Structure to design on (206 residues):
């Protein structure tokens, strides 16, 4: 659902594009917002107006949630294998963005089908198989692990960029942009780690 108030659109655009702007003054239809820091993604979500979510937007949000869990779980398992600090540090830095996704679920009363599921366990059989394949490949060598994760981060960033164009909800776009930015940063870090090992990884999507 599009909102045509020029002042509101300008205010929200400044927030979503800059990532550091003060939160918009509009509040969610629920009339409540968390009492934490108002500038974190999970609290910013409630400062955007509530807009109707189409079924396609709901499906996209839940699909991306599954992909984000896949990414975190592969990092977790490959850290156990290789004990590379970056495999633990990179995903932990995205925790505040993950909170933004959970805030969207709460705001729009959606349920994550993978909530409380253990590492490597998914509601979707396709994701479970993908997890197993990625971990198997990444367990061959540290270079393979770095390559697997770089490819996964790249795919995640591309999926998020596509999802941004598939919604006109300002709050959803804001969270997706935060996640995409994190994936691009992680991809850059992984490419640098591979370069340090004499391996050239060239992202195909950028």
């Amino acid at each position: 659902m599009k909102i045509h108030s020029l002042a509101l659109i300008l205010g929200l655009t400044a927030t979503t594009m800059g990532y550091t702007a003060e939160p918009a003054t509009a509040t969610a239809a629920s009339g409540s917002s968390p009492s934490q820091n108002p500038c974190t993604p999970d609290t910013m979500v409630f400062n955007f107006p509530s807009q109707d979510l189409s079924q396609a937007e709901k499906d996209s949000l839940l699909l991306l949630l599954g992909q984000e869990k896949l990414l975190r779980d592969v990092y977790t398992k490959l850290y156990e294998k290789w004990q590379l600090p970056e495999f633990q540090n990179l995903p932990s830095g995205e925790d505040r963005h993950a909170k933004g996704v959970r805030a969207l679920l709460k705001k729009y009363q959606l349920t994550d089908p993978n909530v409380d599921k253990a590492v490597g366990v998914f509601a979707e059989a396709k994701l479970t198989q993908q997890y197993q394949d990625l971990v198997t490949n990444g367990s061959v060598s540290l270079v393979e692990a770095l390559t697997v994760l770089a490819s996964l981060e790249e795919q995640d960033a591309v999926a998020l960029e596509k999802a941004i164009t598939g919604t006109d909800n300002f709050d959803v776009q804001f969270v997706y942009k935060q996640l995409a930015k994190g994936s691009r940063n992680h991809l850059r870090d992984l490419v640098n780690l591979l370069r340090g090992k004499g391996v050239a990884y060239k992202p195909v999507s950028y």
Residues 1-35 have pLDDT under 50 and may be disordered.
